[in-house]
Amino acid sequence: MIEHAPLPAFDPLAGTVVRAPEKDEAGYWAGCPGVLHDGERFWLTYRRRRPRGAAAERGWHCAVAVSDDGVSFTDVWSVHKDELRTPSMERFCLTRADGGGFVLYLSYVDPADNRWRIDALRPAAHPSEFDVATARPVLTAASTGTEGVKDPYVLRAGPVTYLFASYAEARPGLGGEAHASADIYNVGATTHPTGLATSLDGGTEFAWHGQALGVGQGWDRYQARLNSVVPVPGGYVGFYDGSASHEENYEERCGVAVSGDLFGWRRLSAERPWVTSPQGGGSVRYLDALLLEGRWWLYYELTRADGAHELRVLRVPAG
């Protein structure tokens, strides 16, 4: 049983900037990282966002980048939100495919009903070859019985593929007006736990199991979004985003939870966030972690003093 976080809280300002925002202004973000190490290289998915009301507003650009050192990345593929006919995109997740190659999971607002959904692109030998025309549904509001599902994190354990996703809980009387802004997370109509889906065919068809990490009672009572899961002795450690209300929807802080089986999770940061930024709204969010050769590689989105968000990486010795 894991009784404490496997690494101490860190200083997010000590990280190296990997991607900076377009402008040094509030509402301009570079972040939403997802990281994969294939044994040789680092692969990074990330998103760019502009303020509501700006040209190509909200999540308008997502990309896949590659690096030999985990710090300096070069884009190899990208998508504009208009290619998906969507108001906004959010976190993507890159994984290895059975038999070789890669699969990319997409998170975006469905233009048909303004609800968040998750799709997957047909496997490609190299991420530069992904084609959004091959997108197929993985999880939707209808298939999960929720008001929307987004921000996938996918890992393989034995024959099972696990997909964790943030979702908007269904509530009696919740109507279409909650989706008028095309972002139910920003209106306070319901809460947003993390759910779990599993697949036994390598990630093609998923069975939805519902809640894995529920919202808390304090600082994370509105949202608890599990962003990454790392196997450690005794089980798994997960890093999650928490917020107390929709007013903190863009400024979540980072918490830690642990699990023995991936289905049930226990908070280690129930009383307060594990890591926050000393700047702006205090957000450290979308933390994705790798444990490689005795070091933690922590990728995260950070709020700056000017209100913009940037993507950083910090390497921490495992102890």
TrEMBL record:
Taxonomy of the source species: Bacteria, Bacillati, Actinomycetota, Actinomycetes, Streptosporangiales
SUPFAM superfamilies given in the database record: Arabinanase/levansucrase/invertase
Source organism of this protein record: [Actinomadura] parvosata subsp. kistnae
Protein name: Glycosyl hydrolase family 32 N-terminal domain-containing protein
